[in-house]
Design brief:
Mean pLDDT: 85
Shape: elongated
Helix content: 40-55%
Strand order of the largest sheet: 2-3-4-1-5
Structural class: alpha/beta
Strand content: 15-25%
Low-confidence stretches: 442-447
Length: 553
């Protein structure tokens, strides 16, 4: 079994260290075959965008001529047409992922540093070039020394470099721009959204629109939401979303790739569990798995089926749109129902988004959830109308429960009730929780189906996590012969652990019988196996609509 290297997205480092690499090099072939001068790939975070961009850099970049990194990989079996493109072009590669600053001035300074470092790579050849004028060389010196203070010229730094390299080499240039949307999302939260949108628009248009020095531009982003007028004025860009067939297997792992990995690690027998936790995405007609989560799972010596992924860049935006009720109070209800039912029906997908429109149209909000990896279509999107979106897997469900927990924390005005559990004050906990259910569920449609267990689960998880200094809280984890609903493992001495099981009261049974079923499940499945050495209190929560019964043993 090969080493798993998650510390880098550098293709060369992964190949030379003989680390695990899922061969996506046919992506190169498809890009060569595609006549579009500029191509954009919106994909969720941690789905392989940066590694793919690094791979493209090493394949096309003239600086790495005669490299052997691709020996034995699929692209080398495709014939002379593709081999002749290898290490043929100057390549400019940069990422805007680390331009997150709290002020626009801070962003500009950060961008100047990124460009200074990029120019520094080419300083020797450009400053000694006979094709560049003295004025251009002075500009290069100013950029490297970060002395350019005219904000109107800063967005042009990238197009300047493309021009200089093209003239020096006598070749067109390939530009790889990774995570272009990150500074705009950051600007949205820090009050300089309009300024950074104008900046990025100018950067993209001057670099990619009608640039005769450009061979091809490849752009990645989490979601194509940020530049309101760029895609209309730079109409040479071809965008391939997760709903498109072409390129659908090059970001994320396919089902056959995951099965191959599990076989290599002697884990084929738990494929179904792995699929439930990390699969379930529909990119066009392909079932796709989160690659970060799969690799983290394989790297974990105990192979724990737990959440490994979160979209750090996008989660703040989603929380803002859902929890900030001054924008649209109905979104709160819809969000809770999605957690409850695990799907959202009748969505009209809106792939051309901008942040200002997100607050006014629920369809754009749920589309953003899809683009960021929190929801996925149940069928092929087609014209994008009347689509059903679902929670793809258990990992994402736990992520959404965490979002719900954040809402409860922001909107619940009482004191934490977890202290009652820590002090074994069970009656106080019961009374408080029962009252909260009556108060909080008054505006929610809680269905009497088994799916509503997810809603109660999310609600209780949220309450327990508020100001919780007592317990490590986990849910849906393996223990004994099954998966418990919630486990509270003490962080401090001399307080009890808790195993909590939720059960819906069916029409043909009683609260008392349902509570017994919950306790029998805890005992039979031996959910206490992981905390047997502790004082464990078993809790059954039976519910039907707004009525709830809580018992402990």
């Amino acid at each position: 079994m090969k080493n798993i290297n998650l510390e880098t997205n550098d293709f060369k480092e992964i190949i030379e260290s003989d680390s695990l690499f899922i061969d996506k090099t046919l992506f190169i072939k498809e890009l060569i075959d595609n006549p579009s001068p500029v191509i954009c790939f919106p994909r969720p975070s941690k789905f392989g965008k940066s590694l793919n961009m690094s791979m493209l850099n090493y394949y096309f970049n003239i600086e790495y001529k005669n490299n052997t990194l691709f020996n034995g990989l699929e692209i080398m079996k495709q014939g002379d047409k593709y081999f002749k493109e290898m290490n043929k072009y100057p390549v400019v590669s940069l990422s805007l992922k680390d331009t997150k600053k709290i002020t626009f001035k801070g962003f500009l300074n950060n961008y100047k540093t990124i460009m200074a470092n990029l120019y520094l790579k080419y300083e020797n050849i450009l400053m000694n070039s006979k094709v560049l004028t003295n004025t251009e060389k002075q500009r290069i010196k100013t950029i490297i020394e970060e002395k350019e203070d005219n904000p109107e010229r800063l967005p042009n730094f990238l197009s300047y470099l493309v021009n200089y390299l093209s003239r020096y080499y006598g070749l067109q240039v390939i530009v790889l721009l990774d995570d272009y949307d990150v500074p705009i999302i950051n600007g949205y939260f820090n009050g300089y959204y309009d300024e950074v949108v104008d900046f990025i628009n100018q950067l993209l248009v001057t670099t990619f629109k009608g640039n005769r020095n450009l061979k091809k531009g490849i752009i990645t982003c989490i979601s194509k939401i940020c530049t309101e007028n760029f895609y209309s004025c730079a109409n040479n860009i071809e965008v391939y979303n997760i709903t498109d067939a072409r390129y659908s297997t090059y970001f994320g792992f396919t089902e056959s790739e995951v099965k191959g990995l599990l076989k290599e690690y002697n884990l084929s027998d738990i494929f179904d569990d792995v699929k439930k936790w990390y699969g379930g995405y529909l990119f066009d007609e392909n079932t796709i798995y989160n690659p970060w989560s799969i690799l983290k799972y394989l790297e974990n010596k105990d192979h724990e089926l737990i959440p490994y992924w979160t979209n750090k860049e996008g989660v703040g935006l989603l929380k803002d749109l859902i929890y900030n009720i001054k924008y649209n109070t109905n979104l709160l209800d819809e969000f809770e129902r999605i957690i409850n039912k695990c799907y959202k029906e009748h969505v009209n997908i809106e792939l051309n988004l901008n942040l200002k429109s997100l607050k006014g149209d629920p369809n754009t909000v749920w589309t953003l959830f899809m683009l960021m990896g929190y929801l996925t279509p149940t069928t092929l999107v087609g014209d994008g109308e009347n689509i059903t979106l679902k929670i793809p897997n258990l990992e994402i469900k736990e992520n959404l429960i965490d979002m719900a927990s954040s809402w409860f924390k922001n909107n619940y005005n009482g004191n934490s009730i977890v202290k009652y559990l820590a002090n074994s004050e069970i009656n106080e906990f019961k009374n408080k929780l029962e009252n909260l259910v009556l108060e909080t569920f008054s505006y929610l449609d809680v269905p009497g189906t088994s799916a509503s267990e997810a809603f109660y689960h999310a609600f209780v998880m949220g309450l327990i996590r508020i100001d919780n200094e007592y317990y490590e809280v986990t849910s849906n984890r393996e223990s004994g012969f099954g998966r418990y609903d919630i486990l509270l493992k003490p962080k401090i001495k001399d307080i009890p652990a808790y195993i909590i099981e939720f059960k819906l009261v069916r029409d043909n049974t009683t609260f008392e019988d349902t509570v017994e079923t919950a306790f029998n499940q805890i005992e039979t499945m031996k959910y206490d196996a992981s905390v047997k050495n502790l004082d464990v209190i078993k809790m059954a929560i039976a519910f039907k609509g707004k009525k709830v019964k809580i018992e402990t043993r």
